[in-house]
Design a protein that fits this description.
With 76 residues, the protein is mainly α. Helix content is 76%, strand content 0%. It comes from Phytophthora megakarya.
Length: 76
């Protein structure tokens, strides 16, 4: 049995890169799955909107911290 963890990050490239680190796989397949999930999964859109609203309402210091964390996380 295979279990998948869905990473909710509005940056599609970051999501694909994150999944590629979990397991060897075909990048094009993962990209297609990500696009389908983003386009057709209402929960995905709700989480993205909730994240955006939280960041916008939290202020500039929090926004900068979230951005810095994203850069560190993507760079390894």
């Amino acid at each position: 049995m295979h279990a998948q963890v869905y990473i909710n990050d509005p940056d599609m490239q970051a999501r694909v890169a994150s999944r590629m680190n979990m397991r060897d796989g075909d990048k094009d397949i993962l990209k297609t799955i990500d696009q389908v999930m983003t386009a057709h999964n209402p929960y995905s859109q709700q989480f993205m909107n909730a994240r955006r609203l939280l960041i916008e309402s939290a202020g500039l210091e929090y926004q900068a911290a979230v951005e810095e964390f994203g850069h560190r996380d993507r760079s390894g």
